[in-house]
Amino acid sequence: MTKERLDDYPTLVDPALDFEATRMYFGRGSCNYDISEVLLDNGQVVVCLHQQRESDEVIHTSEGFRNVCEQGIVVSGYLVKPEGFFSWFRSSKVRRVQDEEMDNVRSELMEKLKHPRLAFFEF
Q1: Domain ranges of the chain
Q2: Please, what sign has the CA dihedral across residues 101, 50, 72, 111?
Q3: Each residue of 42-69: pLDDT tens digit?
Q4: What number of CA atoms fall less than 13 Å from residue 96's CA on the CB side?
Q5: Cα 57 from chain centroid?
């Protein structure tokens, strides 16, 4: 039996610093401003990152020309709680969503989150 590879649970940094750092490094700003855990109908918990990033659309503001920011969801994967004797000492992990499950997870999350201005949805 092979061990399943799990990713670390996502962490957040200051969104304003993250946005400016990605703007300087990549030319477009983006940041993760929230983490949510959503219980699906099959009993599994999905970890979602709420992300804001600059789009291609440009508008004129009082500070000059700026890119419009759009908000969306990035699915990290299924929440996996630690097991064993020292489980209280270890942090939770994330198991990636398989390709064949992505459509089901996407439709169920769209129903449950009901985000009014969702511009993108990624895995």
Answers
A1: 7-122
A2: positive
A3: 899 999 999 999 888 888 888 888 888 8
A4: 9
A5: 22
CB 52 within 8 A of CB 15: yes
pLDDT at residue 34 is higher than 60? yes
- Owner of token pair 């990152």: 49
Please tell me what DSSP assigns to residue 22: H
Separation CA 90–CA 117 (nearest Å) = 36
The label of the residue with tokens 């490094």 reads 25
- Give, rounded to a whole angstrom, the gap between the first and last alpha carbons of the chain: 27
How far apart, in Å, are the Cα atoms of 50 and each of 6, 71, 83, 99?
21, 7, 28, 21
